């Protein structure tokens, strides 16, 4: 059974169970629904890389404002790059995490076609990356840790973005983040593709949700370049080693945050709590370091990744 079919059946059974509970329906029937859900869920335990790409892109997957809203408090949204326009595909600002002032930043996707059009399907333009860097430099000035949430198919590849300095904006973020003197923690929550993801992902600690993916480009792009056939994307997923388990094995990431069977959208509150625990643990370690040691730790982490992958 394909993951799409499994997902549809699991969602249907979940909806049916909630309907029975809300209407004080037959408890015996509810038990039957739950048993059927468990049986179908068993088929979703063994996932291929292509299955994980499907779940990473799932329309019900939480968005950056969900993570920020459930994990942080007192968010003060920051907008604009002070040079051009406001890019809504980068979202964030100043917040508190268990009383600690932090800067939170993430790629923003929409929940429907209108929001996706407004947020450019989570593909930032140069103004978005300059906004992110402005927030990070401000965080450094005031000693606030930076926490980023990565979920993008890549930076926007349009002509206007290139004219406005897309490559320069991304490369500048990579260089500046490498030397930032405050802790940075990044979590890949969905898609993490290309320099568009890495532009807010040069962090001391990098974690992935279990069904997130992180790679140099999309599987469709990989297949189009290698075989001139984007329909071979499932085959590309196998070769690209883009899953959380692949990247943990290679030492590219520091840990995996588990998801419920069938994806985070089946129990997001549990995953929010797991992310909270990971952030607490990582911040406790990183905040003990001096500013210079924080920057050195990050620099050495990325310099040594190639040695782990060989």
Provide a compact summary of the structure:
This protein has helices at residues 3-22, 27-42, 49-56, 64-71, 113-118, 126-142, 159-163, 166-179, 194-198, 219-227, 233-240, 244-250, 268-286, 291-303, 305-309; strands at residues 73-77, 90-97, 100-107, 146-152, 184-193, 205-209, 213-215, 255-257.
Q: How would you portray this structure in words?
A:
The protein has 310 residues and is of the alpha/beta class. Helix content is 52%, strand content 16%. Helix 10 crosses helix 11. The longest helix is centred in the N-terminal third of the chain and has 20 residues.
Q: What would you report as the Rg, rounded to the nearest angstrom?
A: 20 Å
Measured between the Cα atoms of the first and last residue, the distance is 36 Å
- Strand runs, count: 8
Number of helices: 15
Q: Given the helix and strand composition, which structural class is it?
A: alpha/beta
Q: Report the uncertain regions.
A: none
Helix content percent band:
40-55%
Beta content = 15-25%
Mean pLDDT: 90
Q: Write the H/E string, N to C.
A: HHHHEEEHHEHHEHEEHHHEHHH
Note the overall shape: globular
Main sheet attributes: strand count, strand direction, barrel closure: 8 strands, mixed
């Amino acid at each position: 059974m394909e993951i799409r079919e499994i997902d549809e059946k699991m969602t249907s059974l979940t909806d049916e169970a909630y309907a029975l509970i809300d209407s004080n329906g037959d408890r015996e029937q509810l038990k039957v629904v739950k048993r059927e859900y468990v049986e179908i869920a068993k088929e979703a335990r063994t996932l291929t890389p292509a299955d994980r790409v499907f779940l990473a892109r799932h329309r019900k997957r939480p968005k950056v404002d969900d993570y920020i809203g459930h994990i942080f408090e007192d968010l003060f949204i920051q907008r604009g790059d002070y040079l051009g326009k406001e890019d809504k595909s980068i979202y964030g600002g100043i917040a508190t995490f268990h009383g600690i002032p932090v800067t939170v930043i993430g790629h923003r996707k929409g929940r429907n076609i209108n929001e996706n059009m407004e947020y450019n399907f989570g593909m930032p333009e140069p103004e978005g990356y300059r906004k992110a860097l402005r927030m990070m430099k401000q965080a450094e000035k005031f000693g606030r840790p930076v926490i980023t949430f990565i979920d993008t198919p890549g930076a926007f590849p349009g002509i206007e973005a290139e004219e406005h300095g897309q490559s320069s904006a991304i490369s500048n973020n990579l260089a500046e983040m490498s030397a930032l003197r405050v802790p940075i923690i990044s979590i890949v929550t969905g898609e993490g593709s290309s320099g568009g993801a890495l532009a807010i992902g040069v962090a001391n600690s990098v974690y992935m949700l279990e069904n997130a993916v992180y790679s140099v480009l999309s599987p469709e792009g990989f297949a189009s370049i290698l075989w001139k056939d984007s329909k071979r994307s499932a085959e590309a997923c196998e070769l690209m080693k883009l899953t959380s388990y692949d990247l943990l094995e290679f030492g590219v990431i520091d840990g995996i945050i588990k998801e419920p069977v069938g994806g985070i959208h089946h129990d997001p509150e549990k995953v929010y709590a797991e992310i909270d625990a990971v952030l607490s643990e990582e911040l406790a370690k990183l905040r003990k370091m001096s500013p210079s040691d924080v920057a050195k730790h990050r620099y050495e982490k990325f310099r040594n990744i190639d040695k782990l992958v060989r």
